[in-house]
Specification:
It comes from Thiothrix litoralis. This is Cupin-like domain-containing protein. Pfam families: Cupin_8. The protein is of the alpha+beta class. The protein has a single domain (6-255), classed as Cupin (Jelly Rolls, Sandwich). 21% of the residues lie in helices and 28% in strands. The protein has seven helices and 13 strands. The chain has an eight-stranded antiparallel β-sheet with strand order 1-11-7-13-5-4-2-3. Strands 9-6-12-8-10 form a five-stranded antiparallel β-sheet, with no helix packed on it. The longest helix is centred in the C-terminal third of the chain and has 19 residues, at 237-255. It is globular and about 45 Å long. It starts with 5 loop residues before the first helix and ends in a 22-residue tail after the last helix. The structure holds 2-oxoglutaric acid. The site of 2-oxoglutaric acid has 11 residues, from strand 6, strand 7, strand 12 and strand 13.
Amino acid sequence: MPRLESAEFAARYFRPRQPVVITDMATQWPACQRWSFDFFAQLDPDRAVTLEKGNVLQDETAFESARMADYLTGLTQAGHAVSGAEDEGTAKRYLSMLRIFEQFPQLRADVDFSLLEAMTLKQVYFAWLGPAGTLTGYHIDWIDNILAQISGRKRVWLVPPSASPAMYPSSKYDYRSTLSEVEPNTWDAKRHPLFATVRPVEITLEPGQMLFIPRGWWHRVMSLTPSISINAFGHDLSGLLLYQSRASLLHGLHQLGLYGREDCTCHKKTADSKRAK
Ligand SMILES: O=C(O)CCC(=O)C(=O)O
């Protein structure tokens, strides 16, 4: 799908909540010309960042702290492409969910999410920087999303909301999301037999391409090369009323230790170290 006008995006994709790959728009962004691991490393080398270790959505929640420049310089030096799940099993360290414009407001003009901004009342933006082989397992975000690939390539698997019983929603808590119990690389057909019926749509996101992931759609994302992405989440009025109010309430209870504290993606099981969501 080449360049999309706002009215067409609204009518054909946003309102019916149908995913779409959008080409020829982000390619023009300054981010696609300027952003690299070195670029970020130089923005604030001493900044402490939290790295996810491995696939925290289906596996154990684990984090590590690092100095931004050390992590990103390591990625530049180690940078090589892997195909598919070659590196499966190693706990990749992933600078995920970086609140990019809160930390670096000067980068706001490097991207243009006006397609989503025109349809929504409230947005939040995250950057994702990591090596080849990072895996964000199957989950639903209860908020509309455009994921934009800035450099490197990612594979995305999408499953419609109608397949939810076969995705085995997990009890692990994640803010504003529902996680699946199933990870295809370690799928146990006896425990999760219905997953055999799931037919995901598989997409490879190239630099400069964007993917609209409507709220309620399951998705799983793996980087095929060292990768920089950014996404914009946005709520329209129905999202604020139907989903955000519930998510905020549950998150308040979670922070007080009254909900989902046995297993979550924001607190380690064995220590109190946590990351802000
Ligand atoms: O890029 C990734 O690793 C995950 C992105 C994602 O899950 C999202 O944008 O909702």
